[in-house]
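Deviations from the work plan: none for this task. Representative record:
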Amino acid sequence: MADIFSSESENGLMCAERHLKRASYAAFLGIRLIVNEGRLQTVLPPREDLIGNVNLPALHGGVLGSLLDLTASLVLAYDAELIDTPRLVNIDVDYLRTGRVLETFGAGEVVRRGRRAANVRCWLWQDNFERPIAAARVQFLLPQRSV
Amino acid sequence: MSLDENDLGPGISVLLPGHPRLAVDEIDQNFHTGAILAIIDNTAGWCIRDHPDYVEGTSMATLDLRVDFLHAVSVSQTLRVRAICEAIDDNVAFVRATAEELENGLIIATGQATFMLGTPSGLDVTTGLD
């Protein structure tokens, strides 16, 4: 009977996967989804053309920002079981450490979800969850149900 | 993307022609906000080199970036991103940027970023520890 309890997150996962499947820009970056202990995570595989600083080398800051953007909207779609895409109003990214050319993980939490707007916090890490490489605060407008 | 050399004035200007792979999805053919954020991040970094206090060859790392998305814009459009470094002080560069539709100049996103200059190039790249 575990299905009854997991059905909610399964619906959420279906919503997030639907968003990801049709998202052209996310496909271009090669983003995948995993669910770990009931929480949605994004995975960005390392790729040479995503490097912004060839001397370090380091992943491009814009790529990490995009991953935070996508992570936030997918976490929101997952938690709120959204069919339509929420509209991103603004994002505030803090870059904490160099993004090395490694697999990058993203996760987030919905801080508040109201009728019209939602606030999401999300963060990225690589080999050590305790050492985030970037974090963001994101504001969304929620899709309004047409009457 | 390319530098827009026809646009003179303070700061720099970069053009990003739209492409279907930068779209939100197959139905929503507007620029994905992540793509706009990435071009603003890039242009914001570049424009620091245009500031008189910038020492050639100094490396830089983005500290933070905030972007407001004012309007959606179709990938059939070309974006022009303008960025200006307003100050460099104590190795921190302060930058403002806007993204607009090339065709009609409608501002579709604004950004504000700070960069740390002079990241030690002797950073341990195997661990990333600094």
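The beta strands of chain B are 2-3, 12-17, 60-69, 78-89, 92-101, 107-117.
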